[in-house]
Amino acid sequence: MSTFSTSEFKAGLKLMIDGDPYSVIENEHVKPGKGQAFNRVRLRNLKTGRVLERTFKSGDTCEGADVVEVDLQYLYTDGEMWHFMDPNSFEQYIADAKAMADASQWIKPEEECVVTLWNGSPLYVSAPNFVNLKITETDPGLRGDTATGGTKPAKLETGAVVRVPLFVEEGEIIRVDTRTSAYMSRVK
Amino acid sequence: MSDSWQPAASLVVLKQRASLWAKVREFMAGRGILEVETPVLSHAGTTDPNLDSFTTTFKSPVSTIPESLYLHTSPEFGMKRLLAAGSGSIYQICHVFRNEELGRHHQPEFTMLEWYRIHFDHHKLMDELDDLLLLIGLSSPSVRHSYAFVFEKATGIDPHRASLTQLQDMAIKLGLQGKDHSRSILLDFIFSARVMPGLGQQQPELIYDFPVCQAALARIRTDDPPVAERFELFIKGIEIANGFHELTDANEQQERFEADNRLRMAMNKPPVCMDKNLLAALQQGLPACAGVALGMDRLLMVIVGHDTLDQVVNFTFNQA
What we know:
The complex is a heterodimer. Chain A is mainly β. Chain A has one helix spanning 97-100, and strands at residues 3-5, 14-17, 20-30, 38-45, 51-57, 61-63, 67-77, 82-85, 92-95, 112-118, 121-126, 130-138, 151-156, 161-165, 173-177, 182-187. Chain A is built from one helix and 16 strands. Chain A starts with a strand and ends with a strand. Classes of the chains: A mainly beta, B alpha+beta.
């Protein structure tokens, strides 16, 4: 694996710190007047999402992390693991619940997802920003019911529950923003 | 059309800048300190391993051999030659150049005020710096603490007596990456990460008597422990000025130059031509004196209450 020097630490560069892969957020030059120059670097742990700050002596190097982002097609889940396929090479990848995080409640088979691979294994699966899903369960809307702010809960075919306007009915397909769980529109 | 031709600083700051420069000159004139100029372009550069000079090439009209020249990182060497020649107390406001420095508080080209006072020690020069701060409207007088005091207060460690392992453990705790750092690097890191941010928050703060491994061009006083007679001014956690009770011993100066160059080679940096003219001047005799270098752009920045240099220089490095 290649190594990078502090002057190459651009935002987005993937580095190995204490055995974990990190992505560089920010790299700031710090220097006491007559002293050693340092690079104060903010990094995001790609496994936990936590942000940490580390300082490097300017000119020091750090090992790069073998982290790439690929588009994979979701195939199925066996209840424990989630199976994906590269639509070009047909190579299969298996993601665990930790890598899936929130994505599992938004994706259905054949959905294309951006998957972050570390040393060839899924580290993090991002659901598409917008998905179209069918409502499998929701109460019939009651006209004039404003006490609930004009929305009601609806269960989607993937199991996620979102709030929808009162006029939306069971069996309809809706568009949802997966980042905020917000209802966007009905899909004809 | 791009707007990048426009000045970075507002026209209000442009005027505040001119007014600050005028006040400094008035202050110096009032004390009989002579304004001088020394060359920006020089055949010798600083050997300081933590400073990187810009270099350029001179093509002589009467020679086919090109000459490598340095842009000064401070006017120190030229001014010391004037002092050795009997100039008396002097000051200079000039642009200086430092390679490999760019950030919120760093520009590769910036304005420095440097002045020297004959027969002053670092404490007397700190008094004078305080008078200057009062004149330019930083109204509260500075507080003064030794390096050891503020270091120990912020970290619980005695910077002069702590073992290398103690410093290493503290540095790792504060997020320094890598191993086998020297004592000086560990002190620099701990100081900038833990001590510096708290300095000068209420009023300007002067820190004096540095560890001997950070002496640069300061005299070393043989106390127990020995300390370098150096001081720094901090305002709002930002380093504004650095001063020395100046080293006048030519032999020790030459030894420090040579040690610097050995360290540069160990760091894979090119050695720098020692300033033989400075050494000759020291040999002749530099009067006992103290000197201080002050970053004028940073001073202006804290006076007008901005937090990046970009807001107080008329054009930033990226626009130049």
